Amino acid sequence: MVVPFFDQHWHAQSSSSLSWSLAVLLVSLAGALWTWSRTTSKAKIGAATAPACPPELLKDDLQGGVANAYTFEREITVPFDIGDTKVSKILVHPIKSCRGTSVTESRYSPEGLENDRRWCIIEAESHAIITAREVSKMVLITPHIEVDSAAPHGGRLVVSFPEDSDCETFSVPLHPSQDTVSDWPIIDDCTMFGKYLVQGYVCAALEPEGRSPSEVLSDYFGRSVHLVMKGPRVRPCGPTEAFPELKASAVFQDGYPFLVASEESLEEVGRVISRFAQDETPQGHIGGIDRSRWRDGGVNIERFRPNIVVKGSGVPFAEDMWRQIVIRPVEPTEGSDETRTFTLVSKCTRCLLPNVDTTTGVRDAAVPYKVLMKFRTGKDPARKSKACFGCNAVVGGEGVVRVGDRIEVKEWATGIGV
């Protein structure tokens, strides 16, 4: 009798071999099912996902060694309780890449906080917008808004410099009239990142005597530059992966009108910096890190140049998972939910700018950029190789935001964020 191959093979196996084969088969099947479930869960935009890392365990994930702490992509069950989350800080940066000002309240429009990035500094010849990425000492230039409703221009923007720069303080009109700007040169091709063309006026000083803003700034930069105020032509924002039909505009911000970040995220970054500074193993090596300087991990939020900082959720990077938030005043005021609703359109990918110390103007060789690259890449679907911190946002109307205002999540994104 001819015995089929399968039967021959089957009868040749010992009972222990059969048990081992069955175990391998079951493990393989379980692995395939787990992979399939992970893939399908990510495809459901806005749906809650399995808690690969529940929020309450996020603070403990460095116990197994800092180098491998964030090796695996983590998902969080959404929604989760954000507690009593409130606005803890508001930062306005009148001149792009120059020092920001912390305020207790600010008016806002769909183009951003009032007077935020309304001005920038450009190369006189190429019209390229200059940032502290290239000239780190820009962060030591201090713009200050002085509002005066009785003044002809509603107040002034006062610009001062470090004492050792030998550059004198000057001021420009806060809201120059149309007659005033008609005498200012207008530049239609202020260039940002080689793709945005933004219109702007070359500013003149309020005081007729003395040097012009362009002359003072050129002295500080060591080359010919201009101070420019945003012109009337609308500067559209680009679409995002989550919002391909996005209709929004901005002034001289990098990409979008608002940047939202949380203190919990900053604390987590500081904690990871501290662990890397103390980890002397080859796996934990970060080139150029000053271990003594960063042993305690302290890094201030101003380096990241957000507009609205929140605190209270207890979860690092909770803002990654908010698609829409409503910022409600402590005291009831006029205004609709639409004008208070901020849509977080994408994560903010980071460059080397946060490495610049806002108090000294010196750029660090490693922190925080190289540390962020260890655990905050792959978060933005359009630019997975970039590290992320904070979220870009747009708003549905005009209003006022104040420190102490409450945050409500109106719509959630997925467990891995927008």
Automatic annotation (TrEMBL):
GO terms for molecular function: catalytic activity; molybdenum ion binding; pyridoxal phosphate binding. Residues 232-410 form the MOSC domain. Pfam families: MOSC (PF03473), MOSC_N (PF03476). PROSITE patterns: MOSC. PANTHER family: MITOCHONDRIAL AMIDOXIME REDUCING COMPONENT 1, MOLYBDOPTERIN COFACTOR SULFURASE MOSC. This is MOSC domain-containing protein.
